[in-house]
Records
---
Amino acid sequence: MDARELAGSIDTVPRHLLIWRDGPAALPRLLAQSTLGRLQDEERLLLSGIPPTRPAIDEVEHESRSESRDRWRHNAATLVSWHAEFGHMSAAEDPPTIEPRPKRHSGRRRQRGDGRRPVRVADYESAVEASSSWWELDPIRLGLRTGDMTVRRSDGRHVWIHNTRRPEIEALDLILGYVTVNDAPPAEWATSSNSTTSRLDPIDSWFHARRLAPPDAPGLGPRHPKAFDLMNRFPVALRTRAWRHTEARLIDQGTTIASDTDLGGITFADARTCYSFLLSQLHLNELGAFHFGTPEALLWGIRREHLARALASRVDRDAAEAFIRMLTFVTGRSPLSAPLIPNDGKFLIPSEIVSPIGYERTLLRAASADPSIAGRLGNALGRRSSRWSERLRAVPGSQVAEGVKVRDAGGRTLGDLDQIAWDARRRLLVVFETKWPVDAATLDESYKTDAQFSKGASQLVRLRDAIRGGAAVSWPPGFTIPTDLAGIRTSWWVGSAQQLDSRDINFPDIRTTSLRLVEQLLPADHLDDLLERLTNFPLPREGIDFEMAQQTVRVEALSIHYPAIQMIGERPTPPSNRRTRHGWT
């Protein structure tokens, strides 16, 4: 079996699910079943002694719970995407079924007609199980198609694959990811340790003490008819406090763009306010579901006009409408940046995919999906690359410039050197071609960042060859650099914002890095010192810091064996004063 055949086998997994017979009605049942699975997983982790997560706060948490949270987030997004693609199949496209042969004559009579049986709960459980396996299968499928993964050997129903990417770079990316993670919340936000159910703030204690409920609330049994009425009558003060609390925590994370950046009819600050409402309401729903025994409340459904009215209580009506348009899911978009899922006249909003983790990325991805504003937003994002200059200027003895023009003999502009740092004393020039796409939230987006690395390397090769061939460089005043770069040491880099490139790119003397890594190496004594640290950074070591564990995932009748990174011991984290909340990338 070759890579293309294996990728094709994986692609068939979602198409054959029986739940598509239910059409649009399958989606809420799917998401509800997924949420139930998440809660069972939460219970398992609690019983094993791992403390609960804090869904409205982005902070360090136990690695097992973090992976569980990420997996269920991926599962919910996968189910939404599958339903968008397969949930409207015609009868002719109905997935094949293999029914057991009835043993009695009466059984045969019951099966006459079109031969279609009703969709059962077990079918939804199977669909959620299939989406869970997609956590492993999705990167395998994409890797096989891009060449990042190859089939090493196959034997009957067993296939072994090899990952061509550098695992030590991917392990380093995992470590650097904690730059976006907040520290533990301030003491005044903590809840009483005496409460076994409190997890977030005093709001949790209110639920635990039943202070918010009417007098007849205490003693209500699970799934009591009045439960939903009580949830719909949460005091306005409670909703407002939860909203403001969540927004304050998002603000505390810090951002890489200005709050007044136009995302298309709504500023980033207003979009953050609206996103805080989604997070806070989902948190209240979860607390209410546990408090009143109403698991149905865990899948939030709200009409568009009701959502617009709620948002308009904190931002103006036009901004509320712009936010809804920006985050509404359509086929082709990722549910992670478009969590308002239209279904049967309402928006379904799964709690798993509305995450405070990297919320800036979510909002920027949502805004950039609109071609009419993508250009203007791209300019705003491009201006963030000035952070490179700010960091490089902090290196003693460095002269820094950006946007340095390169022209041919006829004066035609061939391109720009995005960022240059020049140390005249050491005769050292460092050139960075900087790319600043929105931080990737999905594998597809990650591959787009890889493409930016390749594009940047090609641009540098072209400009470097042109300079060596006599092209003129408009060096800024005070930069005593020879026209043809003769007699100086020159280092050429492609730099992203956060993501490192774990591939081996085929460009001689061109290296790749990220501003996130550069920042963690500062302060440096001089430019040569920074370059030495960057070139010879002590990468995580296999067998000491991480190991490549062989994992197995099933697809149809095949068992696919693949290597996966597992950190050894406690994962190191960047210093708390070098996190996004303190202005780091």
---
Amino acid sequence: MPLRTSSCPKMGSFAGRICQPNPLLPIVLANVKRVLLTATLSLALGASVAVSHAAPGSKALQDAVPDAVGAGSQTPEAPKVRNKILLIPLDSRPAAGQFAQMIAAQAGSKVLMPPYEALGRFTTPANVRKILDWLDAQPMDEVASMVVSADMIAYGGLIASREYRCEAKDALRRLRLLTQFHEKLPKHVKLYVFATTMRLTPTATKEAASYRLQLARLEELRDKYHRVGQKSVLPSIERLKKIVPPAKVAEYRKIRARNHEVQNGLLRMMLSNRIDFLVMGQDDAKPDGPHIGENIKLRSLVNTLRLNDRVYFCEGIDQHANILVSRSILEQGDWRPKVRVVYSDPEGPQKFANYESKTISESLADQLAASGAKMAEGAEEYDYTLFLNTPKRNPDTFKGFLDQLKQEVDQGFPVAVADINFGPDGTSDPELFDVLMQNDRAMSLLTFAGWNTAGNTMGTAIPAANVYLYARRFVEDPLPREVAKREFLLHRMVDDYAYHKYTRPAAYKKIDEAKQGRDEVYGELFKNVNEFVKTDLTGRLLEIYYTQFKDRPFFAGPNRYRFTNVEGVRVFLPWPRAYETRIEFKLIAEPFPNPVPSPVPAP
């Protein structure tokens, strides 16, 4: 059914904190250690470590051994591969689509998206008709799945979902077009959808700057009063009602009611089995607010419709293309990686991260399950370890956490790092990042993430680790996998740390000096800020590349390679603000040169 409607620049203190790499240990010795070492490396962190130990020779350790030590024996029979995924993203930001493309590249999968200009930009909605026409035109023979943002189809993107530009009936009609289209496709094409429970705070725009935070606080306190019965908040509610324009409050509630109606309709569409899997993502929130009651009602409907095995509720929204791309790829091989989790703080699992309405342990469990992975329990074998640095971590247990992290990475164990201990400026933990920059650890990690929110971060690190290890098991060509893994690692280190720690604050300073708000920047000022970001961040990208990746040997199959260059570097601000940036580049790998034999002296 057709759908219609040069040299490394000096970086000052940043470069000073990047330690120069130590000489490489002999490759043979490193490989021997990786085979013989047990997984019982816990350093008595007490309750801060959620541990499952693998015995020597277990599958978890075998998967950690480089391909150079006989990867053929660890590769099961490959599934029938359809290596294309069609992604209709949340919007045009890099986090909504580019990350998923880079993650999937590790398994040789291509994530295809509609034309960039069709995806909209900030407050300009997407061209949904053009997106649907693009989808209708795609050949489906090699397509494994469609990963679709319901908000893009229903409203024209995430920002548009927070505005009242269409009625619920119109949004649902568009979504029904999507499901009817999927029904006519070959059975092998799965449909994975993610939808948004609206965030507590309206979009940060110049127009909303005078009331948006107060409106969010008003709705948060109203929920505390009506749902929890907390009468002490009544004076604050009355004060805020005098500050926030009543028309804006009414509009906000009208939008929430419409979106909730559309979510209900989307759940009922699942009864026809036209949607294979659905993630209900919670955009930026708190433990109290109207979203709590909305999600309670949605969960109740899921139970009534008996959809529990096909619907997951997860914190965050920007990362769910990553989550569902991971699920799509893993399901092709019918493989679910088991993940051991190590926390930086014994109290970390029960904390609430900023902008989230669940505890960290609950949020993590949801992200794992939705991605296609599962938590390793007790002494169960595991495929990789996720080191999770939680907010306001305990300094006493953090030292042990870092020691354990260093030992496991240095000994070749499969390790992913998710840093959700953000500073006031949203930057990852400098002490943790410095450890990752030492001893060639940047080349050895499965992945690293530390951006925006806990859900965003976990929902990036977990899919990246899942897909890489899937590729080790099932994908025959190892070089693209190893290059793609390190491209995403470099991308995350530059974007998640260097940009937010150094470049973005300097960009904001330029905006502030011009006495313009940070929410929206246009004209000559935007041009100047964009040029600064391009120049500054390109230098920082090259700094990390030269100190952490260039000429470092790595295995792909039985062969050694090294990175000799980084090409196609492109940096720009995708939206009229400095909050996020887009970074593009390619790492160039060449065979590692064999050592020149010493001349044999004549007898």
---
Amino acid sequence: MLMMGSRALVSLQGRSEEGQVRALSEKEAPPPSFFPFSSIRAGKTKEGDFMIKEIVLKALAGMGVEADCSASLLTVAGVEVEIPKVQTQGDVSTPVALGLAGVLRKPPRTIAQEIVSAIKAMPQGEMAAFDTIEVAGPGFINFRFKKDYLYEQLRLLYKQRELYLRVDVGRGRRVLIEFVSANPTGPLHVGHGRGAALGNALSNLLQCAGYVVDREFYINDAGRQVRLLGHSVFAAYNTLLGTPYPFPEEGYRGELVEQVAGEIASIDGKRYVGAEFDNCAQHFIDYSYKRMLKEIEEALEAFGVRFDNWQSERVLFDSGMVKGGIDRLRNMGYVYDKDGAVWFKSSELGDEKDRVIIKQDGQYTYFASDMAYHVMKIGRGYDELINIWGADHHGYIPRVKAVLRAEGLQELRYGCTSDKRLTVLLVQMVSLLRDGKPVQMSKRAGEFITLRDVIEEIGADTTKFIFLTRRPDSHLEFDMEAAKRQSSDNPVFYVQYAYARINSIFKKHQTDALSLFIERVDSLDLSCLDTDEELQIIKKLVLYPMTFQSAVKNREPHRITFYLQELAATFHPYYNKHRILTEDNTLTDARLLMCACISIVLKEGLRILGLSAPEWM
């Protein structure tokens, strides 16, 4: 198998890091997202919570916008809320006025000013969270929080913890995430590891968001590659026992192939020496791929990645699912014969051309079993399939989606019709470096650093974190020497060290961060947390649910990685500048509460990424 959004209702714009206006593409645009204080839990809005989007919608309704544009626009999905990258642009911002300009035929800044005026005309209770609401640039609306509101949110975070940090987006929907699925022909390399880290983190993320998630590894135990592996081991077996045998062209080499050949020799002796490969092929194929699969499973276990299901490709053939699926599509008019081969009419279903599913020699293509596999996955009751594939399989996406369209399975049976049953995340390759110099790798020759080698050298946590420091569809350079340094240059060390530092503070204070204020958090005086650094830390903590939901909606766990790095980057300078334990009990308690909340968020984020939160470093 392969190793590896929905369209906005209005066209909106956002800021670049320099504050310049830029158009947001579908991939870049932040998803519709409830403000953290309006997280819906158990179908209800928590009492006292605040919805920034509902305020904007209420203002728009008061302006009579509903009379000027479609009712579908006046939904939560029609209002985007984002966190500006530049502090001077507010705590949160919405570009909704820019999207309405074409509909209302007014300059976006005029629309923004009208929205702000409508908000300010609301009862004071609606405005309780905000210090200022201002129009900026060509039509952005920037909101700034009142200190008292931030203090109250800090208390809520401490009391509610996971309930505060998570947003129930999934509502129990079932998702199957298929990832890694490397051919069982050799050890995992770092490219597989990047897919494993993404799949594991995404599974954790969606589970925290209320989805029911299953993780699946698809085993390519049928077809040319496993046969080639068996033939390679057969050649190594004969050579090992004194009867040189020519290695198959494009065969697999390396220490592990020789090790497997030695294992067969120790079990079967010279039983197969001099035999024809075709007469003992299944024995060598089965032993070899199962041995390689065991190596893969052990490497993933060391990486902290486990699967709920291991699906065999061979079972799809043996059960008749592949043949049955082709026959069904033929009866539907989507399969035809041409030039001695069997073809699927994928060009009629969104693909660029038709695809061969049975070759002229009668052999099935890989696509044939993939067709049956994807239909079978949805038949098992999943609402969404997520596949994590290598970027070189980009062209494979349309043909698989064509199968689901033919079966009537591509669109979801509920909710927004733009939601798809199949989501494919593409993962770019990893360039492995040592002190900036490339490490050469060749899987066929057996000369490459395996994922297990990397884990043993720098640790699973560091490896996973670095894999998640870039968008999966961007190229990643992984310098092993830099990853071993315990400094701010090592991103995972920087984040985990923040957690360990906070733990050491509470050890010194001889208290427990999670229980110290459990009975008196509401009575703490937090007004002394008024330095710019403290307010920025509190804002960062309070905005975590917004980052969380954005990561969920976009299926991008690396957003959590970025957040943790930013949070650590605000805490470390603060720690170096300010004493946490002071002679002023009121100030000490307030700073300890803030540190406790930082530790809660750090631990939650690290858990989603599949990393440990070490108490000491």
